[in-house]
């Protein structure tokens, strides 16, 4: 296995499990313990983790795995979430907002097949998916780009978003819980996402099960600001019930069985 593949696998385990054990990772990846230790040292040097005795952990509550490492993790579930989320969007003319993220990337790929849409986005990865679609009018906000999320944030982004009346916003998020609402790793990104949400008549949050029940550094909005949550069957049922009790329509998507 090439180093780049090992690094991606290690970061996947760290992002979704919280810790990495050297011995376990060596066994699962089919390499020596010494090789895994060198990989962890490399990632520690890049501030992507913190070495511990026998392994590694995420750097802190603000730890955020870059999009390039997250894109293929749980893709079948994210595709199913996107398909279900798009059921909320009837055919015809709509102004849609989409923020950054791996699940919203799957939403964008489905939006690319629609016509008569105006899509407003503050995310470079979303813009990249839609820019060559002549039947989709694409509006990119500008702003300061964040390398981890590919989102453009700050006053410039918010000024452009504020000029649009959005019918439906599809929002990806780092954490959603009954106690804390929506949260993310960066306070500026949180504010920009809150502005996007505030311009929409309907807000659909798309989040895989790993995001349910989590709370991160920066608060975005409370649950009273969203209409629907679309997730997958790996989400904590008790947390989903608590979210639904606050008036959010919760939908659980199932991947297509082949």
TrEMBL record:
Family matches, as InterPro entries: Carb_Metab_HTH_regulators, DeoR-like_C, DeoR_HTH, NagB/RpiA_transferase-like, Tscrpt_reg_HTH_DeoR_CS, WH_DNA-bd_sf
Protein keywords: DNA-binding, Transcription, Transcription regulation
Pfam family, one: HTH_DeoR
Gene3D superfamilies assigned: 3.40.50.1360
Residues covered by the HTH deoR-type domain: 3-58
Gene Ontology terms for molecular function: DNA binding; DNA-binding transcription factor activity
PANTHER family membership: AGA OPERON TRANSCRIPTIONAL REPRESSOR-RELATED (PTHR30363:SF44), HTH-TYPE TRANSCRIPTIONAL REGULATOR SRLR-RELATED (PTHR30363)
Name of the protein: Transcriptional regulator, DeoR family
């Amino acid at each position: 296995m090439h180093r780049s593949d090992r690094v991606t696998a290690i970061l996947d385990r760290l992002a979704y499990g919280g810790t990495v054990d050297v011995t376990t990772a060596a066994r699962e990846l089919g390499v020596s313990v010494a090789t895994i230790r060198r990989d962890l040292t490399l990632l520690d040097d890049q501030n992507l983790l913190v070495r511990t005795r026998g392994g590694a952990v995420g750097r802190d509550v603000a730890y955020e795995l870059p999009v390039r490492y997250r894109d293929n993790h749980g893709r079948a579930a994210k595709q199913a979430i996107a398909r279900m989320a798009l059921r909320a969007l009837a055919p015809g003319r709509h102004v849609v907002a989409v923020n950054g993220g791996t699940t919203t990337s799957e939403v964008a790929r489905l939006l690319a097949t629609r016509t008569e849409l105006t899509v407003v986005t503050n995310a470079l990865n979303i813009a990249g998916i839609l820019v060559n679609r002549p039947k989709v009018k694409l509006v990119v906000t500008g702003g300061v780009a964040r390398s981890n999320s590919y989102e453009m944030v700050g006053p410039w982004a918010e000024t452009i978003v504020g000029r649009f009346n959005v019918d439906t916003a599809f929002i990806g998020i780092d954490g959603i819980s009954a106690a804390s609402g929506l949260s993310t790793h960066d306070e500026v990104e949180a504010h920009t996402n809150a502005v996007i949400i505030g311009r929409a008549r309907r807000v659909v949050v798309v989040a895989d099960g790993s995001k349910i029940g989590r709370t991160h550094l920066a608060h975005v909005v409370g649950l009273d600001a969203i209409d629907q949550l679309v997730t997958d069957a790996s989400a904590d049922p008790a947390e989903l019930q608590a979210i639904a009790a606050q008036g959010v329509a919760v939908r659980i998507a199932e991947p297509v069985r082949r």
